[in-house]
Write a structure and sequence with these properties.
The structure is a homodimer of 141-residue chains. Chain A is mainly α. Chain A contains 7 helices and 3 strands, in the order ααβααββααα. Chain A has a 3-stranded antiparallel sheet. In chain A, helix 3 crosses helix 6. The two termini of chain A are 30 Å apart. The structure holds a DNA duplex (30 and 30 nucleotides).
DNA sequence: GTATCATTTTCCTGTTTGGCTAATTGATGA
DNA sequence: TCATCAATTAGCCAAACAGGAAAATGATAC
């Protein structure tokens, strides 16, 4: 149905959400890891994750205090796999995505414990620019 | 780049624009034909067409007083073909799309001349519901 | 139980967007 | 040259949306 298609396409039609999808390609991440990379408020990330989940693009798993998200493998939205494949095939050479991946490699070195406590401050100084949102959010949207 | 991706995905993330894309799959149509099928104001359609064109999804051709639009075959936006393919592979069984196609078959019987003059009134009575926008636009957006 | 803490939800703000009508554009044809 | 007419642009409004701060959840650990 066209509403179902609309839900997924709207979910994908936002740069922050696309960045999240690209970030999750290698495997699952908890909310505070995603937050550290994207540099947005936790509440904002949480809302984006909810939108992606409703669209059938993500699945959720709780482990103790942390909630892990991953790309959906089982699709209740028939269009979700197509969109996931398209995103996976896109933006491989995008600078914002590259920077997100670089940050992720730093984030991966820090125990979740510490990361949730300190956020970006837990990352080695000098390797993280202060401006949140990396290079994606300049100028008018 | 992620902005380019965003432009296309936003263009696709609207039901009226998806309906236009599906409508153009068989071949080009002029603005007043599209308007007659969708049942929206001409200005609205024109704006949608502009958005799709900017996204690299459509191309334009002028013939006398009429402007014909068709799916883009030459892509200045690298993501456009992927999205077009995805849309083409989707919604084949959607009732709104089916109704649009039925209306299109009626529209195709009427000379563009007459159609631009009279709009939906040029179509055989009884085969067109009064409610514009078919079944796509119910409820809150 | 109770405090802690990651995540979610609620509420607010400024911006974007889809729709309309009215005005403008630009090509046609008398 | 001027009237006509399809299409576009401008201007407006209400709804939707991305973002943040603050309150609410809900699981853990003491």
């Amino acid at each position: 149905m066209i509403e179902t298609f609309e839900t997924v396409s709207k979910a994908v039609a936002d740069p922050s959400r696309v960045r999240i999808l690209k970030l999750l390609e290698p495997g699952e991440l908890c909310v505070c890891q995603i937050t550290a990379v994207l540099g947005l408020a936790t509440a904002t990330i949480s809302k984006h994750l909810a939108a992606l989940k409703v669209a059938g693009l993500l699945q959720q798993r709780r482990d103790g205090k942390w909630v892990y998200y991953r790309l959906a493998d089982r699709a209740f939205n028939p269009y979700a796999p197509r969109f996931l494949a398209m995103v996976a095939a896109s933006l491989e050479d995008d600078p914002t995505i590259a920077e997100d991946r670089r940050l992720l490699s730093l984030v991966d070195q820090v125990p979740v414990q510490v990361l949730c406590d300190q956020g970006r401050a837990a990352l080695p100084a000098g390797l993280v620019s202060d401006t949140p949102g990396a290079s994606c959010c300049e100028g008018p949207r």
